[in-house]
Amino acid sequence: MNELVKTFDLEVVTSRTPAEFVRLLFERIDVETHIQQYEDIAEIRTENFEISAFAGAHDALSAELAIAPDVFIEFRPLPQLATQIIAIKRLIVAIDKWLHFIHNDFALIYNGSIVMMYRKDKRLYVNELCPVWNEHRRGLLSYPYEIVQIADIGTEIR
After folding, report:
1. Exposure string over 86-114, b if 16+ CB within 10 A, otherwise e
2. pTM
3. 3-class SS at 89?
4. Which of 31, 22, 15 is nearest to 86 (CA)?
5. Which residue in 63, 57, 40 sits closest to 115, CA to CA?
6. Tell me: the pLDDT tens digits for 105-124?
7. What is the rounded CA–CA span in Å between residue 123 and residue 147?
8. Helix 18-27 and helix 85-101, axial crossing angle in degrees, nearest 10
9. Smallest Cα–Cα separation from 52: which of 29, 71, 68?
């Protein structure tokens, strides 16, 4: 039986197109992307994810973090996966690789309601209250980070 579907929303400040950004993100970890463009939305598939990407993103959580993203990307683990563990690992590793080469501000939101991590002014913050994180997954990050506690939408950032 599959786990409940999780979504990961990456809201990023970039000059790249949404499809180009996703392709380059996964290219760093040798994951092939299949992209179909439908007007303003790119529908992308990898071995672990269905992805929708588009420009002109605006979100309350990004605004609360003082991040003004240009691109919004929703990652949905494929429903036929026996477990989502590998998909989540690939996403964290891809983001970690990207963090070392490109200094974009971003917010990664789990299930549309809780900040998983964000980078502002070249500093990475990991929200220990996000249920995705555990010791093993934090261990996948080689980019230096600080721990924060953000409970939910509207919670004051510490």
Report:
1. ebbebbbbbbbbbbeeeebbbbbbbeeeb
2. 0.88
3. helix
4. 31
5. 63
6. 999 999 988 999 999 999 99
7. 11
8. 100
9. 71
